[in-house]
Amino acid sequence: MSKALPLLNGFGFALLFYTEVKIMIEPFLLGTYTKKDSEGIYRVELDTEAKKLQNLTLLAKESNPTYVAESKDGIIYAVYDQERMGGIAAYRPDGDGKYKLINKVLETGAPVCYVGFDEDRQLIYGANYHKGELNTYTVLEDKGVGPATSFYHHDKTGPHPNQDAPHIHYTNLTPDGRLIVCDLGTDQVYIYDVEPNGLLSTRSIYKAQPGTGPRHVVFNPNGKYVYLVGELDCSVSVLEYKDTGDLVFVDKYYTKPDDWHEFNSAAAIRFNEKTNTLYVSNRGHDSIAVFKVTEDGRKLELIQRIHTEGHFPRDFNIDPSGQFLVVGHQFSDNLSLFEISEDDGTLTLLDDTFYGPETVCVYFE
Predict the structure, then answer these.
(1) Is residue 318 part of a domain?
(2) For the chain, how many structural domains are there in total?
(3) CA distance linking residue 52 with residue 93, whole number of Å
(4) Is residue 304 domain-resident?
(5) Residue 29: which domain range?
(6) What family does the Swiss-Prot or TrEMBL record give for this protein (predicted)?
(7) Is residue 112, in this structure, part of any structural domain at all?
(8) Mind spelling out the 3-state secondary structure of the chain?
(9) What is the CATH number of the domain that holds 338?
């Protein structure tokens, strides 16, 4: 923003000149569990000039809002969990720095674990891990959540003990507007065509190697390659995304050290377009694996593995400038801030002491 500042000239008269004062604040949301000290959805500020986190603010008091998404007009859609009922809730700013509940849509049983928002179609997508269901919701005129319009249940399972049933873990849009869905329980990734009313039709089904446990995906900005994180075998699979909507296996890489034999599961995955690097978190080894991506997006090279200085890095995210990475730890209640090298995308720890209770989701606004 521009600000007028006074300046005295040689004769003692005040002159005005204008200078550009840049406010280098990047806000982001935290989705959390509320089993201990957390109370709901929080906002934190990243000061990119001072290279620090500041101002933890409770936006909405809610039970276990573990994942959030935000529309362009500032409406927050979040997981809602209350008294053996689960679903999605919508919140709008109320003018005093807090958010007011618009409405919530609940069903009996476990809530969804992931929320995706479709700005063009005004739809909300929910992945229900425990039920193995994919839910789509319309957005109402007041920006609230409409009733679920479709439910899809997938029934084949993999060999891992955690694959006892279908477990939908992720649902969001492809660059060309289709819906991509990860089912950890069946080792499958689904591509759907989406109708304006939220009805889905299957475009393709990709079958991952048994025991992979597909959790989340991220696309290369070129739209031609998908990076699939396997929670159960701690892997990243490179998949080619065809114009037809088919996914084709290219290669597979692993996120944890070969000599690590204790518990580990891969969790979040992010792509930094500025440095052409891919990042994956390890829960157990408590680290971030950094991969350099070839220019065409087809190959990866592990260039760093760095500890996150907290326990169970459930999620992390990269700020819009591509210069900083924030890690949320579910069990140690701290956020770690890393600076990203402009040269190669490697990480340098700046701070690991900022309080972030029971963090499950880090979402830059």
Answers:
(1) yes
(2) 1
(3) 25
(4) yes
(5) 23-61+274-364
(6) Belongs to the cycloisomerase 2 family.
(7) no
(8) CEEEEEEECCCCCEEEEEEECCCCEEEEEEEECCCCCCCEEEEEEEECCCCEEEEEEEEEECCCCCCEEECCCCCEEEEEEECCEEEEEEEEECCCCCEEEEEEEEEECCCCCEEEEECCCCEEEEEECCCCEEEEEEECCCCCEEEEEEEEECCCCCCCCCCCCCCEEEEEECCCCCEEEEECCCCEEEEEEECCCCCEEEEEEEECCCCCCEEEEEECCCCCEEEEEECCCCEEEEEEECCCCCEEEEEEEECCCCCCCCCCEEEEEEEECCCCEEEEEEECCCEEEEEEECCCCCCEEEEEEEECCCCCCCEEEECCCCCEEEEECCCCCEEEEEEECCCCCCEEEEEEEEECCCEEEEEEC
(9) 2.130.10.10
- The predicted-structure confidence for 264-288, as pLDDT tens digits, reads as follows 999 999 999 999 999 999 999 999 9
Domain assignment present for residue 157? The answer is no
Q: pTM higher than 0.85, yes or no?
A: yes
